[in-house]
Amino acid sequence: MKKFRFSYVIIPLIILVVALWGQYLTMWWMERYTTLQLPNFTPLGWSIWIIRFVIFALGAISTVLFWCTSEHDKKFGIAISLFVDNAILNVLRSRLFFTKHLFLWSIIEMIVLFIVTVMMIIAVRPRSRRSAYLLIPYASWLVIATIFAIKIYLLN
User: Fold this and answer.
1) Which uninterrupted H or E stretch holds 156?
2) DSSP at 98
3) Helix intervals (H) in 41-73
4) Parts of the chain with a pLDDT under 70
5) Which of 25, 14, 95, 108 is nearest to 59 (CA)?
6) Distance between CA atoms of residues 87 and 111, nearest Å
7) pTM (2 d.p.)
8) Listed residue (48, 143, 28, 142) closest to 96, CA to CA
9) Dihedral (C-alpha) 60, 61, 62, 68: value to the nearest 10 degrees?
10) What pLDDT score was predicted for residue 45?
């Protein structure tokens, strides 16, 4: 039987807190959202919930996998700091876009978030290809979300 690892609980809990915090900030948006001109490719609300759930679940699995299979040295620390930076940027993006309605700043921040995500994938890949591959849907979603945000900014 495999030994239980504390990281199996703590890492998913941290990611859950980030997801819930971002969702809380998004709730401020709903009243204003109905007043905006939206792109013709606007996804249905329920589909975004599913996408976010899958992306955060893959992120949790990726992080736990990387944590448990990697030597905890300087390169590990760099990769983990990118995971932390990513979580902070994810919440900041929700705050800028949904709470403050600073669309241009949120777009700039999303580009930085995408760059950090790519750096994270690159940092993780040499030690855990599976972990890196699990982050690719998230990076792809960031591209789509950034295009969506740009279109909202241009329409409003």
Assistant:
1) none
2) I
3) 45-69
4) 1-4, 6, 28-29
5) 14
6) 14
7) 0.86
8) 28
9) 110
10) 75
